[in-house]
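Predict the 3D structure for this chain.
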Amino acid sequence: MTEIPCSCGQNEPKRIIFPCAGQANVGQLTNLAALQLTEEGYGNIACLALLGTGSESLLANAMNADEVVILDGCPMICAKKIAGAQGVAAGQHLIITGLGITKGPSKTYTADDIEKVVAACWKGEGRKKGAAAPEKTGRKDNGCGCGCGGTC
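Done. Predicted structure below.
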């Protein structure tokens, strides 16, 4: 019997996104991009600070995810280091300054900067070699990942 793909997105890879959320513009961009990626159904944003405390439930969620996405603002790679200290490895790791965005004082970013980070994720930049880039569905959702508006 052929398995019919679920229309609500339950068969899609489960990604957890940890933004560094640092105080500089690039750190703030990671947070805004992670929120947008969550709205677009790419994955779900999670709290890096909570992971850093060793939260057992968040650690279990990260370990059970199909892919962990880590967004760092700069080459200090604080988010990757915090995740690594908890035994969480990135399947996709982006450093925002590596996308041509200069680190500067807080709140010096644009909507285009956010879109650049989001697009890089969807393209699969920073993903471990051999892993396929996800397909962008263009869905907007309210948490279930399918964009159904809670009707699936």
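The longest strand covers residues 67-72.
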